[in-house]
Every structure is written in structure tokens, then in C-alpha cells.
Amino acid sequence: MNKLLDKAIVAHGGPASWSVYNVAKATASLGGDFCAKFGDLTPRQITVFPHRQRAVIEPLGCVDCQSDLERNRLSILGSDGSLVTGVEDVRSAQLQYDFTLPIDPLIGVLLACSTVRSFLTAPFHLMLDGVEVSELVPWKEDGRQWRVLRAELPPDLATAARIHDYFFDADFLLRRHDYHVDGDAGITITELLSHYEDCHGINMPTRLRGYPRRADLTPDLSRSMISIDISGLEFSLD
Questions:
Q1: Full-model pTM
Q2: Fewer beta carbons within 10 angstroms: which end of the chain, N or C?
Q3: What's the domain count of the chain?
Q4: Is the pLDDT of residue 92 over 80?
């Protein structure tokens, strides 16, 4: 394993603690342009299945709807479990990622679910087979120096992008995550992570702020793409 990744995994609780649990649940407030069509910051229930590449957010997508992203399949389900809409394979569907307002609701749901899933599995998902990592030059921001790990994810690992950059502080905690959506036609997102809490031996952030990234690689704080605040985080066997 890459030395930086190894230290980051240990700082977040270690592989032994991570492998014990199959489900992570929390109450979350979601905001930003991805979620603009779905109302205010009403608390939502989020459930992530770390070893199944699955995230469920309820409600999201419509009133009383549940949005379920499992690997590359997105399903928006009604309260009776019926399929309202969805995408069988978001990778091959050739979705048009237009980030001018208003953002298409289906794109917003997809990226919100993808962000939640990554939020509660990083950096552990970088241990999966097929992930290639390499360390880049350190990044300096606001007087701080962060070490940067670039990860190229395999096609069967469901994410919004193939290339991701992860920024770790002096304690090897994840502080920033950058990725580019939809090749040259999309947008680069910078996610800033903070407010870490220990939950059953796993060290996880409880706050995320996502912004467009400028040409100088700094986040454009004037536009919020997504914000997540979670509380009551619990890991369980099922």
C-alpha cells in the first residue's frame, strides 16, 4: 500500500475497525445547488453500505421519495417502493452535466448520493482492488501544507469521476477532495471536510462543503454546489 494512504487509513481508524461494519447511518442536512430542487435543509436520513458501494437518502428526489445509488444504478423510489424514475447505468447513460442553474433534478440526485457515499467511505475505499494511487507535490493553502494523493479508480468502482485528488493534513486526516465531473464538459468540484468525530473507533468528518474549483486550484466560495452536515452517525453490522 502507498505509504501516505497507509498513514491516512490508520488515522481514520484502521482497516480492522473499518472491516467490522456493514452499515453507516446518520441524520443529515443537505444544501447547495445539487439539492436546490428538493427544498430546504430539512433533516434527511442517510444510509451508506460501505462494502456494497451503496448510498440511500430519504427523502430526496420528490416528496416522500427515497433515492438509492448502488454502484452505477440510480433509483428514485416512491413511499410504496415503486420506481418513480432512475438510471440503470449512470456511466453508460451519457448524462448531460449542465451546471448552469437550475441543475437538472436527476443530476442533482445522482451527485448528492455519490457525494454522500464518498463522504462516509473515504479514504477507506482507496484500499479496494484496482485503485491506483500516487503522491503528488504538497499543496499549500492558508498557511497550511497538505499532502496530496491522486487516485485513479477502476471502471467498476462507481463514482462521478475516474481521477480524484485527496488532501491530507499533518495528522493524515482528509481535509479536501477534488474531482472533475464529465470530462472536459463538466466542472471540477472541491470538497472541504471538517468537524471530525470518533464513532466506534472510526474517525469521520461530519461536515462537508463543496464548491467549484477555480483555474488557480482554489475553491470558489461564492457558489455552494453541495453542503452536508451530519449528526448521530452510527456504524452497525446490519
A1: 0.93
A2: C
A3: 1
A4: no
pLDDT > 70 in the chain, percent = 95
CA contacts within 13 A on the Cβ side of 70: 7
What CATH number did the domain enclosing 40 receive?
Answer: 2.50.20.10
Q: State the CB neighbour count (10 A cutoff) for residue 167.
A: 24
Mean pLDDT, the chain, integer:
91
Helices (H), 44-150: 105-119
> Residue 25 corresponds to which cell in the numbers above?
447511518
**Cβ-based neighbours of 213, under 8 Å, separated by 6 or more:** 178, 187, 188, 189, 190, 219, 220
Q: How far is Cα of residue 132 from the mean position of the Cα atoms in its chain?
A: 18
| CB of 177 closer than 8 Å to CB of 118 | yes
- DSSP letter string over 141-173? ETTEEEEEEEEE--TTS--S-SEEEEEE-TT--
Q: For residue 183, is pLDDT > 60?
A: no
Query: Any residues with CB less than 8 A from the CB of 234 and at least 6 apart, and which?
Result: 24, 25, 26, 199, 200
* Model confidence pLDDT, tens digit, residues 94-145: 677 778 878 888 888 999 999 999 999 999 999 999 999 999 999 998 889 9
Alpha helices in the chain (DSSP H): 3-11, 15-20, 105-119
Q: Residues 6 or more apart from 206 whose CB is under 8 A from it?
A: 195, 196, 197, 229, 230, 231, 233
Q: How far apart are CA 75 and CA 157, in angstroms?
A: 18
28-37: pLDDT as tens digits: 999 999 987 7
